[in-house]
Amino acid sequence: MNGVSPIGFGAAPLGGVYGTIDRDRAVASVRTALEAGVTLIDVAPYYGKTVAETVLGQALRGVDRGSYLLATKVGRYDLAEFDFSAGRVERSVRESLDRLGTDYLDLIQCHDVEFGDLDQIVEETLPALRKLQDAGAVRSVGITGYPLRPLAYIAERAPVDTVLSYCQYNLQNVTLGDWLPFFAERNIQVFNASPLAMGLLTEAGPPEWHPAPAALRAACARAAALCRERGGDLAKLAFQFAVSRPGAASTIVGMADPDLVRRNLAWAAEPLDTELLAAVQDVLADQLNVQWPSGREVPR
């Protein structure tokens, strides 16, 4: 995909994933991001059970379609509802097009592939999406997930254009960095999502549903306290760290308020506090690259 902005607009918060939103401000956040030069917008029907796509469609009404790249997903529709069958993903694309108010998607992605049958995704889902590509409904086809091995398993067996990995290239976890050459060799564009680790790397801390183990939560809370004591902000440090990592085409961060959009873009332009970074890395050292279980075991 050409024209991808270094910072992408993550639209999950538009679905109320991180708490109740003001729809007018959510719409304004999209417009603010576009006006500031953000071109990549990432959403999914799973976010808020289609609410995020609906709000995003409202926000994009009347906006020049050539001014942004629109990515959504197929395969995941609820906490435990996954369906990667050809018929369902084809229908899902049509439903998303309708909610988003467009006649094509720049990118369609298989959502959280680790919860599906990876061989089905290779043999059935991706070919179905390529047919939609041939028909002009989508421009590029990708995959997303938390653990990296399922993404690599699919990428070894089928052509994919993009990989979106979340919570794997941030202040606490840099595992994705080891996999970047693997994807680069296959000409796969990589997106780094959730630089704040779904709220883990913030002053407020993660939401109740966050899957991080207790020791990791506690370490991040200590890191937040250290930043506060030194007049800093863990979220700012984590965001700057993530956007400074090499190899990812874009860092996708969730935003549902125009002030948050402006804040994040300002942070990205400021220099990283290297002394504070070193201190926080010391606090997080015993939790570096600690992960949580997600999805099925990868076939051998």
Written overview of the protein:
With about 300 residues, this protein is an alpha/beta fold. The protein has a single domain, classed as TIM Barrel (Alpha-Beta Barrel), CATH 3.20.20. It is about 40% helix and about 15% strand. It has helices at about 25-35, 50-60, 85-100, 120-135, 150-155, 175-185, 215-230, 235-245, 260-270, 275-285; strands at about 5-10, 40, 70-75, 75-80, 80, 105-110, 140-145, 160-165, 190-195, 250-255. The strands form two sheets. Strands 1-2-3-6-7-8-9-10 form an eight-stranded parallel barrel, surrounded by four helices. A two-stranded antiparallel sheet has the order 4-5. The protein is globular. The model has no long low-confidence stretch (mean pLDDT about 95).
The radius of gyration is 18 Å
Q: What is the CATH topology descriptor?
A: TIM Barrel
CATH architecture: Alpha-Beta Barrel
First and last CA, distance: 31 Å
Number of helices: 10
CATH C-level category: Alpha Beta
Q: What fraction, in percent, of the residue positions are helical?
A: 40-55%
Order of helical and strand elements:
EHEHEEEHEHEHEHEHHEHH
Strand proportion? 15-25%
Report strand order across the widest sheet: 1-2-3-6-7-8-9-10
Largest sheet: 8 strands, parallel, barrel
Q: Which class best fits the helix and strand makeup?
A: alpha/beta
